[in-house]
Structure formats: structure tokens, C-alpha cells
Design goal:
The protein is an alpha/beta fold. It has one domain: NADP-dependent oxidoreductase domain (TIM Barrel). 40% of the residues lie in helices and 13% in strands. It has 10 helices and 8 strands. An 8-stranded parallel β-sheet has the order 1-2-3-4-5-6-7-8. Helix 5 links the parallel strand 5 and strand 6. Helix 2 crosses helix 3, helix 4 packs across helix 5 and helix 7 crosses helix 8. The chain is globular. The chain starts with 7 loop residues before the first strand and ends in a 19-residue tail after the last helix.
Length: 267
């Protein structure tokens, strides 16, 4: 098993908005959907998937366990609730969404419970999200690197997270990039715009192609059919080594997501 390179994110989308986004994406050919317990949209996502008529085997569905559900006597039950909402018997990938605040639930405990969920067939793969080097090392000590499919982290041209990426690669752990477009900030970057113009592509396509070509999975979201279709076209775009090297120079450690009380001490 592996993590597909391209999918649809659903962060901040709820109700009819997320139903329409998922429905449109599936109609356009998307087959990977990323959600989370804290997004409070799993039931809406499940409704859109069910209505699409697409067979479960064709889809790759990811959700994330929220911090309130980390205790070993709660994690599996919460995952079963997610499955019910998503109208499926299993997830393709289940992630720990954030580290446990103040280490209230030890990494060993929640990773052990997540591995048990995998053994029970509730999820085909497991992984983590927003984990630092130290937290990844703790997760590896708990369940083994071979059981950690991905670390989903904020990663975009302005925050290239090289330390985390290099360590993950050394352990055979895939990186999934979220907020790859940095809330649209990188789309205004003159260098990205210049590369896009040269390739007759959009800045979003260039940025997504950069991430995928770097070996990361991406999960951009959109509510507009034209943008969903345009983002999907990034899978067919190839950047030159020179373009990739230029985008590498944009790294400035510009982090956009660091919720107080939940975020770890970043590397």
C-alpha cells in the first residue's frame, strides 16, 4: 500500500458546500478524499461518496483522529463512529491529527491503539500528522516505521520543512503536504508566476506539480469546478530541474498553521 500523490482536501468545508465539492471532484475523476473528525463533515463527505455510485474499491479515503479521542479506550470507538458517518467499513488511511496536548496521552498509547485498529481491519494504513522529528521517533519506537504510511504536514514553497522531510525519507515514511498553496500566498509569487507563464500553466498547477515532483502527496481543496479541474491537471505537468531548484530558494520558514495549545515545538 502507498499514499496516492493527488487527492481532494475538505478542511473548512461543511454541509452542502462540501457535498458539492466532493461530488464535483468525483465527477471530474478524483478518487482520493481527505477529511478529519474535527472538520465535522464526515457525514457530508460520506453522503457525497454514496451518491456518486463509485465503488469503494476505486476510492482512497483518509480521516484523522482528533486529540479528544486518543485514549486507547476511546480511539477505536471514535474511528468506528467515523466509519459510520462515512458509510464505509474501512478507511484506507487513518492519521493521528495532532500530537497530544502536553503529552496527556503518550505517543505509545495512541499509536498502539491505531495499530490495533489496523489489525482489526478498520483501516488499511495508519500514519501521523503535524509530527516533529522527536514525535516521529517516538511513533517509530511505538509501532515501527513500516507501520507509519505518512506524516501529513504543512508544506509549501515558503515552508519546505526539510528536516522533517529528510528524516521521514530516511525511515521510508511518505510526506503528505497540506496547505500546499499557502492559502493562495504562493500564487502571487513572481517566481512561481514566471515559471507558470513559461509552461503555459497556472501558478497553482506549478506549485502542486513542484510538491508531487518532490515526492509529496497533495490534497488541495476547492469549491469551484474550474479550480478542481485545473488542480487535477497538475498531475500531468513536469517541471525542469532548473524550475525545481528555483522554487527551492523560496523557503523562508513561513508557517501559517500553529494552533495554540495543540501545536508542538516545531523543528
Amino acid at each position: 500500500m502507498s499514499v496516492p500523490a493527488f487527492g481532494l482536501g475538505t478542511f473548512r468545508l461543511q454541509g452542502q458546500v462540501v457535498i458539492d465539492s466532493v461530488s464535483t471532484a468525483l465527477d471530474l475523476g478524483y478518487r482520493v478524499i481527505d477529511t478529519a473528525q474535527i472538520y465535522e463533515n464526515e457525514a457530508d463527505v460520506g453522503q457525497a461518496i454514496a451518491a456518486s455510485g463509485i465503488s469503494r474499491e476505486e476510492l482512497f479515503i483518509t480521516s484523522k483522529i482528533w486529540v479528544a479521542n486518543f485514549a486507547k479506550d476511546r480511539l477505536i470507538d471514535s474511528l468506528k463512529e467515523s466509519l459510520q458517518k462515512l458509510q464505509t467499513d474501512y478507511l484506507d488511511l487513518t492519521l493521528i491529527h495532532w500530537p497530544s496536548p502536553e503529552n496527556q496521552v503518550p505517543v505509545e498509547e495512541f499509536m498502539g491503539a491505531l495499530l490495533e485498529a489496523k489489525r482489526l481491519g478498520l483501516t488499511r494504513q495508519i500514519g501521523v500528522s503535524n509530527f516533529t522529528l522527536d514525535l516521529m521517533k517516538q511513533a517509530i519506537a511505538a509501532v515501527g516505521a513500516e507501520n507509519i504510511a505518512t506524516n501529513q504536514i504543512e508544506l509549501h514553497p515558503y515552508l519546505q520543512n526539510r528536516k522533517v522531510d529528510e528524516f521521514a525519507r530516511s525511515q521510508g515514511i511518505h510526506i503528505t503536504s497540506y496547505m500546499t498553496l499557502a492559502y493562495g500566498e504562493v500564487l502571487k509569487d513572481p517566481l512561481i508566476q514566471q515559471i507558470a507563464e513559461h509552461l503555459q500553466a497556472t501558478p497553482a498547477q506549478v506549485t502542486l506539480a513542484w510538491a508531487m515532483q518532490s515526492g509529496y502527496a497533495v490534497i488541495p481543496s476547492s469549491t469551484k469546478r474550474a479550480n478542481l479541474q485545473s488542480n487535477l491537471a497538475a498531475t500531468a505537468l513536469t517541471l525542469s530541474d532548473a524550475d525545481m531548484a528555483l522554487i527551492a530558494t523560496l523557503d523562508r520558514g513561513h508557517r501559517l498553521t500553529s494552533p495554540k495549545g495543540i501545536a508542538p515545538d516545531w523543528d
